[in-house]
Amino acid sequence: MFDHAYGSYMKHAYPADELMPLSCRGRVRGMEPSRGDVDDALGKFSLTLIDTLDTLVVLNKLDEFEDAVRKVVLGVRLDNDVVVSVFETNIRVLGGLLGGHIMADMLKAQSVRLQWYKGELLHLARDLGYRLLPAFNTTSGLPYPRVNLKYGVLSPNSRTGTELDTCTACAGTMILEFAALSRLTQETVFEDTARRALDVLWEKRQKGNDLVGTVINIHNGDWVRRDSGVGAGIDSYYEYLMKAYILLGDDTYLERFNAHYMAIMKYISQPPLLLNVHMHNPTVSIRSWMDSLLAFFPGLQVLRGDLKPAIETHEMLYQVTKQHKFLPEAFTSDFAVYWAQHPLRPEFAESTYFLYKATRDPYYLQVGKSIVESLNEYARVACGFAAVQDVRTGRHEDRMDSFFLAEMFKYLYLLFSEKRDLPLDIDDYIFTTEAHLLPLSLSTARPPCPRNMTMFRRGHGEEEIFTRSCPSAQTLFPNNPTFTRTIRDAHKQLLQPGAERLALFRGIEFPLHDTRMEPLEILKNMGLTLLPLGDRSMQLTGIRHKVKGSLVLSEPYQACAAISNQKEVQGKMALAQRGECMFATKARNLQEAGASGVIFIDNAEGSCSEEMVLFQMVGDGSTGDIVIPLVFLFQKEGQVLLDALSQHRNVDVLLATKPMFLGEEKTDQPLSASQLHKAATETRTMMLTSAPDQA
Fold it and tell me: Where Ca(2+) is bound, by residue (predicted)?
């Protein structure tokens, strides 16, 4: 299979960056119709050849490797006037050159071959490193997403430098390659630059829960997209924190990874699913689909030693691949196709390899066999292997990305090989996110310098996280030799035809709303009833531990600063608008002003509960000091209260956990502190209504 793919590239495409397997020719930047950002990986530097270098050694194709090194040394230029992705160029080209250099040096030291080699690949890597450095010339230290290989970023000829933001993974997936380059060349600028970008991402995390967003402004560090997950846009940031600790021996990276990992397992992981949440509102998923890039995560969990969730998520992914032949680019929480494309991504094979290495369960050899069979049956074409445009129809796309040769065949070969089959001890190396091999001996190449860094806040669960640093099946699952099957079997039923599935993602049971319902009816179904009291007054009834108060608008209306109308708010039920700050901040300000409760009204014009996704008001990580009840209403329902307040002198509100009708309410007695806290808890729990964003 590898010979067919690599041979097709060399025959039909080299020295082009990629092979077009349906057209049987090379893809050259500017010569084919633009594919948008996908083409930013192409730099007219024989991308596929460089990306494949260390794969040739792993597969013991040493003649082909020596020939490929000669071709790169003699034929590759890096001063091309082309704009490339900093992220892709780093992981594929810089990583490929470093992996190739390390393999060439190893073979030369063993006197096997390449006695002519004098570090030419490392010289190219250094040249490329300096061409990437201008991307980091920003106020924050986060890199521009693109750089011109010849003119840098801000030159009049660069055609780049106007970008405002980049993805978290794009900024946070530099440290392995840049640190390796620094330690091999003894030039610290690369490692220091990558460290600085990681420091910014850590500092900009949501400190209440240690989550990060997906897209960040490179100039001021503000989050542009606040959804948080483990897939596209963030994935390899987490991976590089863990692997930087393994490669470089710096505890800071482990501490940061563990902080993020606890947040992932608390908010994002819903075994076997991994669903995105809002970084400021993480207790409810904000989308019901997953992208295929998260398939790397079980492999990362194996490195951390967390086998059970790794097995669960991997099994879910395997069931999806069995249903669709390949893993779709995105699929829903009930495993239907969301985006039908499959560009021959290797992440599922990667996790399969790591799970087999950790468990030695032959089941994962069968999984690997199924990957091989699907590739041969559904992706193999006359000139290589073609990406699948639609997994539902099997229609092909005229592309074979370089990562297919760099990663897919490497992981599959390692899965089925014995140690004696390999020309190197694979346990002496760490895989980059592009599966390039960096030696663990780099940790001793230069002692880490003392640095002032924000450290991990040790707390609940810390001991378990720091002690379980590598997987031990016998320790984690004593007296259960079939533990992997036991875990898998619990999830296989998810895709059985006709099987009834429970709701697999967080949320609440909420009655389906008839779109014809009026706002007053919606309020009633939520346990809130607006009742006329005479004397131009209205009453909103509701909860078992009733909390009563007259409505008053807070000033400022968004309640993000100290409340200026404290006398009016004292003992009243305050109305505050969503936006500008966390719910918890608003609640504390109004509680301090003496409000008996708060009703938040959405700031999105026209929002209503029957049209919005389920959502829960959440705090900032420590909300035990908030004891007043809090309720959230969308704009349409909240407008009922605003209209009532504008039309009547008094609007009294009675909050309860279930609907109450006129004549049912009893005279209220003063509540004790414990009753008030219980009422507040029940009210917050009850009001899980619908909205996708922060306060």
Answer: 433
Query: 489 — phi, psi (to 5°)?
Result: -60, -30
Consult the annotation and say whether 162 binds a ligand.
Answer: no
Tens of pLDDT, residue by residue over 470-483, are: 455 555 555 566 77
444 or 117: which leads in pLDDT: 117
| Domain end point (choices 111, 138, 163) | 163
For residue 595, being part of any structural domain is answered with yes
**What is the tally of structural domains in the chain?**
2
Cα–Cα dist 598/582, whole Å: 14
Which residue numbers are catalytic? 88, 235, 329, 347
Read off the CATH number of the domain in which 92 is found. 1.50.10.10
Of 601, 603, 573, 575, the residue nearest 680 (C-alpha): 573
How far is residue 659 from each of residues 369, 537, 632, 686, measured CA to CA in Å?
A: 58, 19, 16, 12
- Contact, 142 vs 171, CB < 8 A? yes
**What does the alpha-carbon distance between residue 695 and residue 693 come to, in Å, rounded to a whole number?**
7
Q: Print the domain residue range for 147.
A: 1-163
Nearest Cα neighbor of 271 from 52, 504, 48 is 504
From the list 585, 617, 621, the residue with the least C-alpha distance to 208 is 621
Q: In this predicted model, what pLDDT tens digit does every residue of 225-278 receive, in sequence order?
A: 999 999 999 999 999 999 999 999 999 999 999 999 999 999 999 989 999 999
Does some domain include residue 313? no
Q: Rounded CA gap, 610 and 413, in Å?
A: 52
Pairing of strands 547-553, 573-577: parallel
Is 306 contained in some domain?
no
* Between 490 and 274, residue with greater pLDDT: 274
The pTM (predicted TM-score) of the whole model is 0.71
Q: What is the CATH number of the domain that holds 677?
A: 3.50.30
| Token pair listed for 164 | 């405002």
Q: What is the mean pLDDT of residues 56-67?
A: 98
CA dist 306 → 228, 262, 297, 429, 456 (Å): 21, 12, 11, 21, 20
- The closest alpha carbon to 150, from 234, 225, 77, belongs to 77
Residue ending a domain, choose from 114, 132, 163: 163
User: What is the rounded distance in angstroms from the CA atom of residue 2 to the CA atom of residue 93?
Assistant: 20
Token pair recorded at residue 177: 């390659």
**Residue 116 CB neighbour total at 10 angstroms:** 12
Residue 287 domain flag: no
